[in-house]
């Protein structure tokens, strides 16, 4: 079947509820590139939405999975221990952001891992309610739909959803109404900390601490716009949790496994989470997720209350072990910080050159975003130009934002190529606008 016929077949027979960037058919991937069935080769700055962190078909990960397929594919977790599961724990223990995180449960998807964290938090505290951040994304299962607050489409017309979920603002300083009206007094470098005040009010008005099991936070807001919190924020949240016997849950599904320049984004803020949620980059594309917490919390659950048919699949765990080893052998974090600086410098230069087009540049490591002035659909226009130039990138957020998720082991040459394409795309979109609209003093997005 031809590439066009395959795409047509997919349009007819694949569920319409799955949104996608392009109607082309991906045939193969290698390193920082994917090749379409049409033969078109594209530089991939999406990594399967932050999953193939070591690039497509990383040789060591592929070899480990191939070997495991010939040994044991499905060793059901409720039947007995299986070796790759235990060896993966051995690989991950040394890189946990705090020594108290020593007991693991592996599942399949990020959403399932978030739900596992909800189960643990409610069971361990014997309290029903949880608090999430406005702008957060935690998944699209019935439980996590109730927790996701980045866009209404994820939960629209699916109610009633899981009860007991409350939300507070995340410190998104670029969109903070207080910062915008403070004449420069408050900003990312000097946050007003109103979101902390709003959390304290929530605990007085809507969900009492005695009813609140946990606060779920993405250490770097993902679908909501790749927004890092300001200095001091997490320390305040940790204090509130400790004071009120509330668990702090770090959702590192997207920000974990080196994406921000540290193994886990929470490490940038020096705070201990009670539960850490992981997925995506853990096995470089093989379905695997998990939670980790301290043993006394995990041991509150009765045997049989957790599990799943494919939970902690042996092949996925073998891939995860290879991923952990590759981080050491290839000095992945060093590359993330070097390439991340190159990308951020280019985006900052573009913001300086087009201040009425680009409103904000932010992020950590290779989890970066460029927010455009609202009302012009600049992000989608730049994205389309990049695709014309054989490069895949994604938009995100309810604001006009592009996110950049290149492979963590991307070469200097491929990064330079990608940055050149992005810069050209921005220039071409700007050229199609009134110069006074893109090169004069900036304004806030709508």
Low-pLDDT runs: 440-446
**Rg over C-alpha atoms, rounded to the nearest angstrom:** 22 Å
Write the CATH fold name of the largest domain.
Aspartate Aminotransferase, domain 2
Helix percentage: 25-40%
Give the tally of β-strands: 15
Order of strands across the biggest sheet? 4-10-9-8-7-5-6
Anisotropy-based shape: globular
Highest-level CATH class of the largest domain: Alpha Beta
CATH architecture of the largest domain: 3-Layer(aba) Sandwich
User: CATH homologous superfamily of the largest domain?
Assistant: Type I PLP-dependent aspartate aminotransferase-like (Major domain)
Please, how many helices? 15
Approximate strand percentage = 15-25%
Strand-and-helix sequence, N→C?
A: HEEEHHHEHEHEHHEHEEEHHHEEHEEEHH
Averaged pLDDT, please? 95
Give the number of domains. Answer: 2
Structural class: alpha/beta
Distance between the terminal alpha carbons, to the nearest Å?
A: 45 Å
How does the major sheet shape up?
A: 7 strands, mixed
Write the layout of secondary structure elements.
Blueprint: H1 3-13, E1 26-30, E2 33-36, E3 41-44, H2 47-50, H3 59-69, H4 83-92, E4 103-107, H5 110-125, E5 129-133, H6 142-147, E6 165-168, H7 177-180, H8 194-205, E7 212-217, H9 233-244, E8 247-251, E9 275-278, E10 289-293, H10 295-298, H11 314-329, H12 332-353, E11 358-364, E12 367-372, H13 378-388, E13 391-392, E14 394-396, E15 401-404, H14 412-431, H15 435-438
Parallel strand pairs: 3-13, 5-6, 5-7, 7-8, 8-9
Antiparallel strand pairs: 1-2, 2-3, 4-10, 9-10, 11-12, 12-15, 14-15
